Amino acid sequence: MGSFLKSDHHQHHWRLREETRPRPHQGETKQGETKPQPSWGEPRRRLRTWSHEMKNKKPAKHRKINTIGSQVGKHRENLYKEAYHRINSAKEHGYWLEVIAICDSIIGDRFEALVAAIKNQIDSGRKFRTISQIIENHGPKIVKNGFPQSVIDELEEWVDHRNRFMHEIVKVRDNEISSWEDRIKLAKETAETGIKHSRKIDKITRPIIINIRKNSGI
User: Where are the domains of the chain?
Assistant: First the structure.
């Protein structure tokens, strides 16, 4: 089985919040009557998940602007170079899930660059988003600026496959039984298609972004 990309994300622990309401002793009620203690279905503690805890606290992530004299562009160029080297290495070893993950990041970055250019680099246009979120929120603007609708349609189909292999590699759907070997075979096809999409979208977006910047005077 292929390797997965490592992450430096911080570890967020589950937190417990004590309820403030008092806990009566067994056998005590306001009327002095005997009453059983709450069952396990009525816990005195509540788990607060990471997503709930951080929902309104975690700041949005934004795409860094490549200004004149900065090294941001060069840094991105190096990252892309290493990403494609990693893709080639992963292909040789059959690490298809890793290939899919890297292609997803490349495609997402190209769309984020395009949206940022369309919105003149304002903060709301530079937020990190998934490919699906970008297409849903900015699809019409992207097409209006010259990106082919046919490529978006192809990409949406690829994203469906991408989601399946990244999130459902061991899950079994209704009325469907497929072996591990079958899944890896399809993951290979999805990875190879992802490579083609990443290069195609990179080639399409670059001249569009240059034209947008030229017309806006950036």
Answer: 72-216
Per-residue pLDDT of the chain (218 residues; tens, 9 = 90+): 443 333 344 333 333 333 444 444 444 445 555 555 444 344 444 444 445 555 556 666 766 666 666 777 788 889 999 999 999 999 999 999 999 999 999 999 999 999 988 887 655 556 768 888 888 888 899 999 999 999 999 999 999 999 888 888 888 878 878 899 999 999 999 999 999 999 999 999 999 988 988 887 55
Question: Residues, the chain, total?
Answer: 218
Residue type, 103: C
Helix residue ranges per DSSP H, 49-148: 50-54, 72-93, 96-118, 131-144
- Distance in angstroms (rounded) separating the CA atoms of residues 154 and 199: 14
- The answer to whether the pTM exceeds 0.70 is no
